[in-house]
Amino acid sequence: MENYSSVPFFSSAASTGSFPFLTRYPELTLDYWAKSFGDLYSVWLGNQLFVIVSDPAIAKDLMVTNGSVFSSRKEMYVKSQTVFAGRGITATPYNDRWRKHRRIAFTWLNQRAVDSYTATLDREATSLIKALLVASDGGKTPVNPQPHAGRCSLNNMTTITFGFRTDGIDDPLVKRALKLSREFMNCTGPMSNLVDFIPILQKLPNPMFTRGKRLHQGLVDVYGGFVKDVEAKVKRGEPVNDCLAKTMAEVREEEKLDDLDMAIMASAFLIGGVETTAAIMQWFSALIPAYPEIQKKAQEELDSVVGRSRLPTVEDEKNLPYCHAIIKEVERVHNPFWLGTPHVASEDFTYRGKYIPKNTVVVLNTFTMHHDPERYPDPYTFNPDRYIEDNLTSAESANLSEPHKRDHWMFGAGRRICPGMIVAEREIWLTVSRMLWAFDMTEIPGEPIDLKEYDGLSGRSPVPFKIKLTPRDESVAEILRNVKV
Fold first, then answer.
1. Which of 261, 253, 184 is nearest to 227 (CA)?
2. Burial 249-279 (b: 16+ CB within 10 A, else e)
3. What is the DSSP letter of 204?
4. Please, which domain of life does this record's source organism belong to (predicted)?
5. Confidence (pTM)
6. Mean pLDDT of all residues in 124-143
C-alpha cells in the first residue's frame, strides 16, 4: 500500500471512529472532508477503503472513460447475505450476468418502450391530481401529498412490471410496497451498516441480519409472488398485459432465469422506480410553497402555452422552459441520493499518480458537486433561472462531453447510470407540471416545512408535512371530472 501515500486518507482507527458521522447526514461530513482534502480523497471504514469523488471531471474520467474498471458493484455483507440470501446479486461485477439483466430491463426502459406506455404515465399523473383534489376537499383541508406521490410512482411501476395498478392510497399494497422500498434503502445504504466493514461483527448476532432476512422474504413474497402469477397465466395461455414479468416468463429458459432472478429483477424495478420519482415529487411539494413568486411565474408560463382548458402534456415541455428549469433545480437541490450508488474498482488503477487498489469502493459525492459555487453561484438558494437556457433532458445532459456542464448527477454516471432515467423524467414532468397547472400550493400557518431534515439512510424524502392545495379556478374540477383514470 505504499503507493497509496499520495492520496489523502484517514487511518483505519480514525475512520472507524468516524463511522457515526457517516450514518446520519453523511453528505455533510463528506462535503467537509472534500473542502479539507480535495476532490479525490480516501477514507477507511473498517477493512474497506473508500475513494470519494467530488468533481465532475474526475467522475467522468473514472466512471465513463474508464468504465470497464469502475462499473462493478461492491458486495456489501448485509445486502448479499440477508437481503439476497447469499446470492451476491447486487454485488454484480460488470460481467455477462449483469449485461443479461441490464438487457432485459432495457427492453422496458428505453425510449421506444417509454413512448409506448406514455398513456400509463399520463393516466397516473391525472389520477394524482384528482386524488389530491379529493383529499384536500377542493382546497379546504390541508393534505400530505407524500402517500399520493408514492402511489402514483408505484402504479407506474406495477403497470410496467406486472400489468396492474392500485385503486387508491388505501390499497394494502401501497403501504406494504412503500415500506419495502424504504426498508431496502435503509438496510443497504452505502454507509448504513458498520457490520459491512468489520469482519468480526459478521460472526456475531446482529439485528441487521434479522431485518435483512425479513426484507428478503418480503421482496420474494410480494414481487416474486406477482411474477409467479403472471407466469402462471402465460403458461395457461390467458391474456396478459405486456409487462416486464411477462417478458421474463417468455425468455426464462433462454436466459436461464430462476425464481430469485425474476423476483429480484422485479423488486429492482419497483424500488428503483418508486424511490427516485416519488422523492422528487415530494421534495417539489415541500419546497414550492416557500417560493410563491417562482410558482406564479411558472403558472403564468403554463397559462400562456397550455391555457386553462386542458392539462399540460409531454409535448408541451419543450415550450415550457421555466417549468422544465424548476424540475432540474429541485433535482439539484434535493437529489434523493446524495451518495451515488457505490462503484468498485475491478482491478488496480492509477489516476493522476494516485493508486486505487482493486476492490476499492468509489462513491460519487453528489452533494458537493451540486453545491459547487463555481458551477452554481449561491448554490444553497433555490433558483430555477440557472437552468433557463438548458433545454436538454437529463439523459441528454449526461452525454455531454464537458462534465462540468451536466445539469445534475441524480441518475449516476457511466455504465451503471440509472436505466430508468427516461421514464423517471417523463413521470416527473407530467406530475409536477400538472400540480403547478392545477393548484396554488401554500404552507399551513404555524406548520413550517422542514427542508433540511429528511427520512431515510440512503434514499431521501421529506419528513411528513402538510400543505394547502387550492384549485386555481373552477376549470380544474371540471376538466378532471371529465377524465377517466
1. 261
2. beebeeeebeebbbbbbbbbbbbbbbbbbbb
3. S
4. Eukaryota
5. 0.90
6. 96
